[in-house]
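Q: You know discrete backbone vocabularies at least as well as I do. I have my own habits and do not want them to colour yours. No explanation is needed for now; the record alone will do.
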Amino acid sequence: MSGLARSRMRGVLVRTALVLGFVAGIAGPALAVTIERVTSPGGIEVWLVREPSAPLIAMEFAVRGGSSQDPAGKPGVANMASRLLDEGAGELDARAFSERLEAKAIELHFDSGRDTITGTLRTLVAHRDEAFDLLKLALTAPRFDSEAVERIRAQILSSLRRESKRPSDLAGRHWWETGFSGHPYGHLIKGTIDGVEAITIADLKDYVGRVFARDSLKIGIVGNIDAATAGRLVDRVFGTLPAEADLAPVPDRAPQDLGERVSVPVDVAQSSLVLGGRGIARKDPDYFAAYMVNHILGGGSFSSRLYREVRDERGLAYSVFSMLLPLRHTALFFVMTATRADRVEQTVALINSELRRMAQEGPTAEELAKTKSFLKGSFALSLDASHKIARRLVQIQLDELGIDYIDKRKELIDAVTLDDAKRVARRLLDNKMLVTIAGPASGPADSPPAAGAR
């Protein structure tokens, strides 16, 4: 292990201990969350939850962008740029920047999704000024040194090559490439081997310059900090960013080729299956009903219908689940599993049967009641640590749900009736789906396409 790797490992252990201590301190009153809307002197909005007894400050933030803003022919720029932002900035090269973080147990990292770039900062209160200064350097003066760029490029390429042989990754990649052909969602967030190999330092600098701006910035801060200090530090970090991002327009798009089936030959024992179709948008009034229907169908792990029927009753798969995926420019619904190659047809047929049954009959009153109880009771787990609360604050802002969302969430759940759930089950599941299967040949090419209820 290199010196830099050892330094980072020590930092991880220190931060883990600090975070565990902080979690223990706030886990009791996790749902007693009072959100303040703070406007900095420079006009930047922050959602703040004060925790005076905590030794830490946690900040999460996001800007619009993500892989949907990758330049044409170079998918993977957003992912690569986000991984390089903490690899040296200003006068500090990658090693010096990392050592400054580790010396004060500051956690700083960035991530990219399809629609956003996100950032995480966690620090002891005593080191907050240095933590925010290092974050400012990362955002406003990233170095993108050749050594760091090539090291991160090699890591991404290695990951992409491994994934090019894994059935689960292949099924997912071909689903997106088929369902969103010609659309920015059509490539994976990590990009492609050819795309990543073609990325230049100029591409990375251009991306950061276009995307990081104040107009789409969403910030959540939790910890031992007052509103005036939070506003001052936010201005210090983000105040010099451009007022507006230079984003390419991304059209709204429903998935294509629904009702089709794509087979990806892979010489392995098991086949991976992805069934995907239209979902329901996060701001849609039917979203909570759809969320409950999905929980009952396949999102509730061991208690779900799909898990019971596909795994427990027939032993066709080790795991099977469904999920809603609302994105900024589309809304999707997925079912995913893996099974033996000679059981693919049986598994697809059984999944379709369960989708049809839910679409036609909806959930039972008992299933809906249990789901409501679970969703209300488990919500505390998403608010039992500072970084979880900060992340939730940012997501609520991105989804435009309102600063009172946490307070009104229980009422929104309770308001869903059995008739609502049955109506939304039909709306969500009475649709064709695009199916991708990665594994050994499992049947004739003209096998009937899988669909929700048709």
Q: What stands out?
A: The CA atoms of residues 188 and 250 lie 16 Å apart. The longest strand covers residues 331-340.
